[in-house]
Automatic annotation (TrEMBL):
<protein>
    <recommendedName>
        <fullName>GST N-terminal domain-containing protein</fullName>
    </recommendedName>
</protein>
<feature type="domain" description="GST N-terminal">
    <location>
        <begin position="3"/>
        <end position="84"/>
    </location>
</feature>
<dbReference type="InterPro" id="IPR004045">
    <property type="entry name" value="Glutathione_S-Trfase_N"/>
</dbReference>
<dbReference type="InterPro" id="IPR036249">
    <property type="entry name" value="Thioredoxin-like_sf"/>
</dbReference>
<dbReference type="InterPro" id="IPR036282">
    <property type="entry name" value="Glutathione-S-Trfase_C_sf"/>
</dbReference>
<dbReference type="Pfam" id="PF02798">
    <property type="entry name" value="GST_N"/>
</dbReference>
<dbReference type="InterPro" id="IPR040079">
    <property type="entry name" value="Glutathione_S-Trfase"/>
</dbReference>
Amino acid sequence: MTTPALTLHHNPKSRSAGARALLEALGVDYEVKLVDFAAGETRTPEFLALNPLGKLPTLVHGDAVITEQVAITIYLADRFPAAGLAPAFDDPQRGPYLRWLAFYGACFEPALMDHAFKREPIDPTTSPYRDYDTVIAALIAQLARADYLLGDTLTAADILWGIGLRWTTDFGIVPKDPVIMAYVDRVGAHPAVIRAGELDAAMLPQ
């Protein structure tokens, strides 16, 4: 049976940078379709038929369309287990792995946007993520325990977090805490992350 083709709809200056790095780390064949923001290509009927929100990353694998960074991370790492980037279903680390992936989408990103746009915090008992400072403190505490989120071994969750933290510290939305920056550097030194960055640089106008 022929393996369905993987196509990443991608722009290097977007959240899809993490998905590309993960694809490189998995060592699988994939195609990239550059989405030009300036040309409005996230708002075309063709793209909106794939992702009604008009957002990146958007991954197509055969007949399956996967959106949302966390969903793409889980899907790819589980679909290609030979790379060893996700704990197996019966591994005790599977729960913590899923925890930190969910924390990224459910707590970190909402807290980040509220902080960046200077929105007043809501009552912590109502907020799905409590508050920005608590989210950042919880993250730093976890990263201080070991080289990676789950210990000494890099997983797909680290690729998502490492690249996300690189962007957000560059933009000044997340503090350049020494623990965070050391983690960003470790993830950034992974050969797949370096390779993805080089491929992305080649796509941008010189």
